[in-house]
Structure to design on (125 residues):
């Protein structure tokens, strides 16, 4: 993976949220964004507060086994939490705390490019 661009596709019911994530990803070095129907190394799924189909979308994406998943969520209810744990999502980021650095780290980790951070470093200590 080193020296190559990590291709990422972004999915979700919130069009504005998708565009925001795509714009952020395009500004990150080593990451390229592809359309949702193209093959990607990592997939990002937005799970909005009012997106009733998000858990189903997560299940279908995980069952297809296309690529490692990163979830960007406003909040997660019990159904979504179960789906996230059941289908091996690589990272969950809270949309209200999303930064380019956090998104970059999650994508790189999901692609298998980075060693994991020690717990203290991950929590900001």
């Amino acid at each position: 993976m080193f020296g190559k661009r990590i291709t990422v596709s972004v999915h979700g019911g919130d069009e504005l949220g998708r565009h925001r994530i795509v714009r952020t990803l395009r500004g990150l070095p080593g990451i390229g964004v592809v359309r949702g129907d193209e093959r990607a190394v990592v997939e990002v799924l937005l799970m909005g507060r009012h997106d009733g189909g998000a858990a189903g979308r997560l299940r279908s994406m995980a069952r297809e086994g296309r690529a490692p998943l990163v979830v960007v969520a406003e909040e997660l209810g019990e159904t979504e939490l179960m789906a996230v744990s059941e289908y091996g999502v690589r990272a969950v980021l809270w949309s209200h705390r999303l930064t380019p650095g956090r998104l970059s780290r999650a994508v790189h980790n999901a692609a298998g490019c980075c060693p994991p951070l020690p717990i203290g470093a991950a929590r900001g200590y």
Observations:
- The domain at 6-122 is CATH 3.40.50.2300 (Rossmann fold).
- Residues 118-125 have pLDDT under 50 and may be disordered.
- Helices lie at 15-26, 54-64, 78-86, 100-111, 119-122.
- Strands lie at 6-11, 31-33, 42-47, 69-73, 91-94.
